[in-house]
Amino acid sequence: MDGTTLISVAQVFLGIILLLVSLNLYLILRLKEIDPFGSWNPNKINAGLFMVFLVGGLIAAYASTQAWSEHLIFFQPAVSEHGLEIDRMMRNTMGIALFVTVLTNILLFYYAWRYQAKPGRKALYYPHNNRLEVVWTVVPAVVLTLLVFDGVGVWHNIMDEAPEDSIQIEVNGKQFDWTVRYPGADMEYGETHVSFIDEISTNTLGFNFEDKRGHDDLVVREIHVPVNKDVNMTIRSRDVLHSATLAHFRVKMDAVPGMPTSFHFKPLVTTAEMRQRTGNPDFNYEMSCQQICGGGHWNMRLVVVVESEAEYNAWIAQQQPFYAQWQEMNGANNTAEAQPEGASSDAVAIASIATAQ
Amino acid sequence: MSDATSHATTGAGTLSAVGHHDDHHGHHHGNFWTTYVFSTDHKVIAKQFLITGIIMAIIGIGMSTLFRLQLAFPDTSFAILEALLGKWAPDGKLDPNFYLSLVTMHGTFMVFFVLTAGLSGTFSNFLIPLQIGARDMASGFMNMLSYWFFFASSVIMVSSLFVETGPAGGGWTIYPPLSALPQAMPGSGMGMTLWLVAMTLFIASSLLGSINYITTVMNLRTQGMTFDRLPLTIWAFFLTAVIGVLSFPVLFSAALLLMFDRLLGTSFYLSDIFIGGELLHYQGGSPILFQHLFWFLGHPEVYIVLLPALGISSEVISVHARKPIFGYKAMIGSMVGIAFLSFIVWAHHMFVTGMNPFLGTVFMLFTLVIAVPSAIKAFNYITTLWKGNIRFTPPMLFAIGLVSLFITGGITGIFLGNAALDIPLHDTYFVTAHFHLVMGSASAFGLFAGVYHWFPKMFGRMMNKRLGYIHFWLTFTSLYLVFFPMHFMGLGGVARHYWSQSAFTFMEVFMPLQGFITIAAIIGFFGQFIFLYNFFSSIFIGKKASLNPWQANTLEWTTPRVPGHGNWPGDIPHVYRWPYDYSKPGVKEDYLPQHIPDAEIEYEEGFPKPATMPTPATPAQKPEVKEEAED
Ligand code: HEM
Ligand SMILES: [Cu+2]
Ligand SMILES: [Cu+2]
What we know:
A: Immunoglobulin-like; five-stranded mixed sheet; 10 strands; elongated; disordered C terminus; B: mainly alpha; Cytochrome C Oxidase, Chain A; two-stranded antiparallel ribbon; binds protoporphyrin IX containing FE
């Protein structure tokens, strides 16, 4: 459906509305005596429409769920360990929610239809019933308590400290992209701070190069993680809020300037397996930003690759530490200082990283 | 038996009634300005709020149709966008920054200007004095100020649409640092400053109004109108005002500190920032602090929006089902519970913002507790319909629709309130679906139900029923068609606030759904013109209303067709019972107004005399109950 169809639909619709309004105007002003709808009983019609709405709505809801379910990531099994727990909660909650919503909507519309006003009938004077009210206070309370108990456990597992031997990665958000850092062979990140950022020399993460721990840190534009290993992701931002979201993994955590956050998870399915599962050879896990951060918010994409441990190790081994790249760049490229402030320094950085890969 | 007790309980009401007594002809000496513009009459002020709210709603909903075009058809060039927005829609496509500004302003307009001021401002003002039996608000002058602060706030907010850098763009929650730094996006420039100024005036307006509502309900009730005889509308407005008074000041502090950060260079919310090629000096602030302050208002705010709608629907459902509202006391209890709990759940909006996860646990517990009173209310509405004698008038249709939307939208709250389950769902369309159904649509239905129901009292004429039916069915269907599919997008991981879904393959598959939603939204948008036409034309050519067109029990229907200044030309009626005696066994009519003394009740033939009449639900007159409620 494109814009022109839309506009013609809108025009047709406007036409109908105009027609209805003018018809009504006509009826009000001229035709009071011979009103063709005069014999319609609005109670019957509206009550009937409620039943139509109910039945039609339930069918439509069911059919559309069927039609879309294959695209509903949160209905497909998660590809992380804690994600499977979340999926279980989702199934339980969904079951209860559907039951309650469908049941109460049926009762609501059915009663509306069933008890439409009829001449000579009087409503039942039924102002309260304590037992009934206790029942529908206690039952929801019990159900919700069960859901919460389950939820508290899962939440604590997710938010617990990451296991000691986790793979460490750090994602750095800025308007409007992500940069990934690995701690390198020493398993420790070098110090970074916004005050060291120097875009002209490509030091966009703000390395303090006096901290030797940072000399072997890797800086890349893709997340690579081995399957079945815990990953501890540190999340940082240097400007505004962002949110590191890995929908397939049920991972989401805000990036907060001045306050590193973290999220740990264990991927269970490699990209290659997922390509087979989905039958899509181009499938990739994607990380998005889900906290409004400005004009490019919609476009902060980062590819996430889950691979076997061997592949992962091979990939790591290919990467050149950022410090070495930086030295090379700023040795060979002393004219950088002469560049106008900020101009395409990012592009240079990306180019250098790309060649390194 | 009742007279002695009721005299004892409402001394204040009597006094004020006497006090106003000699000037109830006031409207004769007012000139045009004092009668229609700077009026202190609560009924005029209510209409001013309503009309201003309607104008803000047209702009607010209009903005949403513009960005819906962009969401559904990102590659199509719309001449209308370019014509309307000029430089913000080059080649007929919305600029990404302006898209965010439109979303932000849409949210701000709808939440604050339409569903807070438009709804509470209209109906609290209109109904509180009329339904409790008072000649006006406790302070007519403060009431007038409340409107004019709101008016000034609206003017500033609308004018921010026209500034060079565009209106505020950081979302209606205006999280810093984005909203604090003009470098971060155009919408954080002048537009954001105006947003903060406008909201400050808005808060002042809301506080002036709320204090007045609270004072009026506490002190100006007529004789016999104890707290356990108040219509549920009044209970809802009263509790809404209490919530507002306690929470809006916190938003004011939040906004003030943000203003300091923006204008004076303080660091309340900012730390360690490098943006636009430049290192900023801010040190030691926390963006999370702002979120706590914002949601300390923000969550109560959603109930400020919803409670009046629930109050209105309680009244409307009872009147048009010709049946007492089921569980009057439970309804009050659950509203009190909701009002209290709404202050201790705010951080459920912040589970994944980096807040301490232990806090998350606490807020998750409280959040799911608040679902219980909500469930009670839903069940009580349904039971009220059971074995009723339902008259399908336009207000009744909207009230029934409200219950359905409230259930369908509210139930998703139990997903979002469970912190672990909120991880994938947070900031997706699932949240958008949740709050548009439960807050946006349900409250809008409360507004519609209220307008259709009380229009005869506001303007002395009836709205056209048939146009009301058409309006209802169009609106109800289109709302479900718009917001139900958003659950699918949310469950597919599609993020909110995305100018385009084309960057992510798992989001792009939902484009056809976006198209569908946009068409439904445009249909719904045009459907509202039926209402506008009906509303404005009925003011002039509507059928003249009778004194009590819906045969309702509450006091507003004892006033003249168009009540003048002071509401009742003679004495204020006294109240002898609760407002929900519909279809009471033995009573001749199927309603029994609050102001009819027991001795004057007309009984069905052959029904035993009052002394032996069963009165199961009429709350006995116990002065101590009133005291309890006031505490
Ligand atoms: C049944 C009880 C309810 C529960 C448990 C609940 C829970 C939640 C939770 C946890 C969120 C945050 C979701 C997220 O951002 O990830 C949320 C969002 C929201 N809820 Fe509810 N809710 C309930 C009822 C309501 C009601 C009655 C209203 C309004 C009248 C409401 C209005 C909102 C709004 C406006 C938001 C979104 C704010 C935003 O992010 O822009 N909710 N709800
Ligand atoms: Cu973002
Ligand atoms: Cu909330």
